[in-house]
Every structure is written in structure tokens, then in C-alpha cells.
Design brief:
GO molecular function, one term: pyridoxal phosphate binding
Keywords: Pyridoxal phosphate
Protein name: Pyridoxal phosphate homeostasis protein
Number of strands: 8
CATH topology: TIM Barrel
CATH superfamily: Alanine racemase
Number of domains: 1
Radius of gyration: 19 Å
Order of helices and strands: HHHEHEHEHEHEHEHEHEH
InterPro entries: Ala_racemase_N, PLP-binding_barrel, PyrdxlP_homeostasis
Helix content: 40-55%
CATH class: Alpha Beta
Function: Pyridoxal 5'-phosphate (PLP)-binding protein, which may be involved in intracellular homeostatic regulation of pyridoxal 5'-phosphate (PLP), the active form of vitamin B6.
Distance between the termini: 28 Å
CATH architecture: Alpha-Beta Barrel
Largest sheet: 8 strands, parallel
Structural class: alpha/beta
Shape: globular
């Protein structure tokens, strides 16, 4: 199928969806819960069948059922641990996946999506509706910060979850400044500080402990257009102490920001361990393969 026909198919899907948007509604969340956490549609209907062929594995996926299952598991974990309803956000990690699978997820009421590659996020955001909130969750080269913010926009870029250097923060702050000037807005860009809780050299992030507070103070002083909303980590599989370390780091962050620790979000937990992360205090879980199936990295760079 040609690219033009693909886009036409996706556009038709959104046209039908927008026409029947009243079929979807988010839960009413209390004022104590951050906006945009878990969205549950009042009723779910697959509004149009996506016929574009992707791969045999993708063709057998039931995105609606997968998301419903993940949401139920999140709710069960929230209830079991005495957490408030709606206190955990589901970010559907759609990296390397074709647009039609995101459409299927969108049709269930999912609005928060995570991408690892700047170019892929920039491409997808132009094809998806404006009410999608994008989370960048991969390593971001500082020279890509400007184009990412400019293309996606502060109105759709919910958070850069992987900030661990003042250099990147400064580039993002400048990009936010330029976007605001062009848009005539005064918005801030949300960021999380990435912490390397596992100590693995292959993983990015600031070291736990005093370095967290020191970096936060520098960013707060020098980057007024960045809102430090929480911390993020990619834990080591099976080592759940990484979650405990991030919780402790939140205390350091709260002191640096003069905030209550509970005001800061914790982005931790993925497909294999998000329920444990919720038990440890996660407010933002990044679930990919459980929803979209295994990924193909063969054609993607690390940018």
C-alpha cells in the first residue's frame, strides 16, 4: 500500500472517530490527582478497520483487548496497594510500531504515548490527533532538542523523561523559548530527571544521591522554561531495589525544589514489572510490548 493511501486510511479513521467522539470520556479525577492519568472510555468500539498490512505478528494483535487488560492490571495493583483511583498514568510505548496500531490504541481512549526516537516521534505526531500527549522516553541528543520541540510543540509534548545533563536541559529551555515566541504562548516544557538506579554503564542517567539535587538546582536556576515534574528510571530486570532507590531520590529532588515529595512523579515500571513498580510508588508506567507486541529495531537509529 502506498504512503498516500496509508495516510488516507488513517485520516478516514480519525474523521469517523472525531464524528463520534462523544462515545469516549475520561474518568473524572479528583483535584489531588495530576491531570491526564488513566483514561477509560465509557464504551469502546473499533470505529474503522485498518486494512494496511504490516507484519504477521502485528496482524494478530488485538490492541483493544491488550490495553483493557493492562488497565485492569493497573487498577488491581492500585487497589491492592491502597493507592487512589486514577493515581497511575499509562503511557503506551509505541516505538517502532506502525501508525495504524497507535490509531487502534487511540480508539480505546488512550491518549498518552511514549516514543524512544526523536525522528519517529516527530513523524507520528503530525499524523495523530492534537489531543495526544507525547512522552519522549529515549536518549535525546542535544542537537535534536530544538527540532523535537519545534515539531511536536509544547501543547502536545507532555514530557521529556530522560534529562540527565545541564547541557540537554539548556538546549530544551532554548527550544521552549523559541517555540513560545513563535506561538505567542508562555508554556513550560515538562521534564523528568533520569536516574541511573542500576549503576549499569549501558544506561543513561544521573547517579543517585546528591547529584540528583545538584542537577535539579542548576536546571531550576538556569532553565526557567522547564518544569521539573518528577524522576524516571530504567531499572535492571529483576532488581526491584532500583524502584526503592528512585523513591529515595525523590526526597532529594523534593528538597532541591522545595516541594512535598508526593508532588513529584515517579516514572518507573515497564511491561514486565509495572505492577511491582506501582506497589513501590510509581505514578507513570511505560508499557509497550504487552500492548503492541515485540519490536523491530532493524531500521531505527539511536537518535
Amino acid at each position: 500500500m502506498t504512503i498516500g493511501l496509508r495516510r488516507a486510511t488513517v485520516a478516514l479513521s480519525f474523521a469517523i472517530l472525531n464524528h463520534r467522539s462523544s462515545a469516549f470520556a475520561p474518568l473524572s479525577l479528583s483535584s489531588r490527582v495530576p491531570r491526564g492519568l488513566i483514561y477509560f472510555p465509557v464504551q469502546t468500539k473499533h470505529l474503522t478497520k485498518i486494512t494496511m498490512s504490516t507484519s504477521a505478528a502485528d496482524d494478530t494483535l488485538d490492541i483493544s483487548s491488550n490495553i483493557a487488560s493492562v488497565r485492569q492490571r493497573i487498577q488491581d495493583a492500585v487497589t491492592c496497594n491502597g493507592r487512589p483511583d486514577g493515581s497511575v498514568r499509562l503511557v503506551a510505548v509505541s516505538k517502532t510500531k506502525p501508525l495504524e496500531l497507535l490509531v487502534a490504541a487511540y480508539e480505546t481512549g488512550q491518549r498518552h504515548f511514549g516514543e524512544n526516537y526523536a525522528q519517529e516521534l516527530m513523524s507520528k505526531c503530525t499524523e495523530m490527533p492534537d489531543d495526544v500527549s507525547w512522552h519522549f522516553i529515549g536518549p535525546l541528543q542535544s542537537n535534536k532538542a530544538g527540532s523535537l520541540v519545534k515539531t511536536v510543540g509544547l501543547n502536545k509534548l507532555a514530557c521529556i523523561e530522560t534529562v540527565s545533563t545541564l547541557k540537554l536541559a539548556s538546549k530544551l529551555n532554548r527550544a521552549a523559548e523559541l517555540w513560545n515566541e513563535e506561538a505567542g504562548e508562555q508554556k513550560k516544557l515538562g521534564i523528568y530527571i533520569q536516574v541511573n538506579t542500576s549503576g549499569e554503564e549501558s544506561k543513561s542517567g544521573v547517579n543517585p544521591g546528591s547529584e540528583v539535587g545538584e542537577l535539579i538546582k542548576k536546571i531550576s536556576d538556569e532553565c526557567p522554561l522547564l518544569s521539573i515534574d518528577g524522576l524516571m528510571t530504567i531499572g535492571s530486570p529483576g532488581d526491584y531495589s532500583c524502584f526503592d532507590i528512585l523513591v529515595k531520590c525523590r526526597e532529594e529532588a523534593a528538597v532541591a525544589l522545595n516541594k512535598d515529595p508526593n508532588e513529584l512523579e515517579l516514572s518507573m515500571g515497564m511491561s514486565g514489572d509495572f505492577e511491582i513498580a506501582i506497589a513501590k510508588g510509581a505514578t507513570n508506567v511505560r508499557v509497550g510490548s504487552t500492548i503492541f507486541g515485540n519490536r523491530d529495531y532493524s531500521s531505527h537509529s539511536t537518535a
